[in-house]
Hints:
Number of helices: 1
Radius of gyration: 44 Å
Largest sheet: 6 strands, mixed
Number of strands: 21
Shape: rod-shaped
Structural class: mainly beta
Helix content: under 10%
Amino acid sequence: MRSILALLFAALISSANAQQISGGAGGASGITIGSTVITGGTDTRILRNSSGTVGEYTLTGTGTVAVMQASPTFTGTVTTPQLSIAGSVSAAAWTTTGVALVQAATTFTDTSSSGTVTSMYVSRLGIPTVAASSSTTFTNSYGLWIEPPTNGTNVTMTNKYAAGFNGRASFPNATAAAPALTFADGQGIAGAASNGATNAILITASSGNEIAYFKTSEFNLTSNVIIRWSNQTNSFTGSTADTFLGRSAAATFQFGATNAASPVAQTLQSQGSRAGTDSNVGGGNLTITSGVGTGTGTLSTLTLQAPIAVASGTGAQTQTTGWRINNGTAASTGYTVATLPAAPLTGARAHVTDQLTTCAVGGAALTGGGAKVCPAFYDGTAWVGG
Length: 386
């Protein structure tokens, strides 16, 4: 009688709750969920009812939390040594909202700091240590590499950027050998930590050599740098540099490129009017001045020099003063009669410091050996008085 009552009770419970889990009949292994009989399982998998079908689903990793939603929300810290995002996404126009990695506008409250904090990071990628199973050299190594977007079906992108910043970007101070910002060909830009370049922006060549740096009120170039202008506007493609400004020595500008076997003549000019447009408009004057002093200080001199020839060969010619302008007057260069330059320009003027007799005038011959200072004029054939 007791056995019959137990069987009737079990049948009643089973019919009232057909989805109840029960053990295997007759002591067999496995469980029954609704009409699904599960007799075995696989490690690291979980059971889930998906649209009325109960089955095993993969659970990756270890721990006590399983994520089973298409768009899960976490309320704490999620820790993982790797994060891989794969697969294609189709969504309504997202424009500037973002569609891949998106962090919504969020408030982060510091619950312990006060006063002035030197630095603070909201998001931070730590220093990755890269190891290898055998000796390995990586020529170029990147902690983060970002590719620009590419055109897909029915899409044309006018400008493609790998990254954009809606605010300032900060880079650490660096050196010429390891600049903070490096381009593909090796040129670099650094917050300078170089001799004389503190608190400056340093520009380096692909060789690591320093080229220039900017400071608040300075633009500094190394001595071997030449400023060049190309012969066409708006583009360097196919252009040729044809105007140069460099440094040849301390406090000395050089117009033209580095000294070479075929030096190019140079011209310094002031602004002019527009031919074919401006009628009867003169060009701008050109004034060259020496430095202005104060009070009774020594007056500066504006000196014009040109070289004179030396012996045949590779010896450098001698730069020689032709005119000096001082105290509002111009003075020619003085020579003895014997050392007057040979074959200068016709009409050249100088003065001699050793005329023997009264100053020669009207094209008379000059005679050295005396002490008189007299004007001299080159008539195309010889130096004469005048």
